[in-house]
Amino acid sequence: MNIKLLISILITLVSAFSPLSVFAESRVLLTLTDNHGFTKTFTREALQALPQSELTTETPWTKGNNIYQGPQLSTILDFAPNGFSTFRVYALNEYSYEITKADLKKYQFILAIKENGKAIRIRDKGPLWILIPFSKYPEIKTGDEILNQLVWQLNRIEII
Predict the structure, then answer these.
(1) Are 76 and 157 in contact (CB under 8 A)?
(2) Do you know which InterPro entries this protein is assigned to (predicted)?
(3) Which CATH number is 28-159 given?
């Protein structure tokens, strides 16, 4: 048997039986940049290795209370070496919104990577979704500016 053929067959078999989650864990989900040339990328595995927060909340876009888990958004921004007062968050569809450091402190955003114990799928506003504990802020109403900051399908943060 030809060695090249044997190697091709082995690679195909290994690929076919490897769990897809291995590949998903190593795919870059989030990129953090600033205007000084700094760039840091995060995979799902890297995000899950950070200290995790959990919140149980209703949102205007989901039914009933759900449990969300992920790192604090401030933990991600702590990686930026040059400090900041404002940053812009981007979704997969290039929707973006500016968030101030003051709002970051006030609302204690989390970067949700799990909903009810499962990875958030793209079609369910994932894989990354900026959220707040809505139950702490009953004054928030539909149309409030804060809702624009809760970007789903987040893939990029740019320090301004």
Answers:
(1) yes
(2) OxRdtase_Mopterin-bd_sf
(3) 3.90.420.10
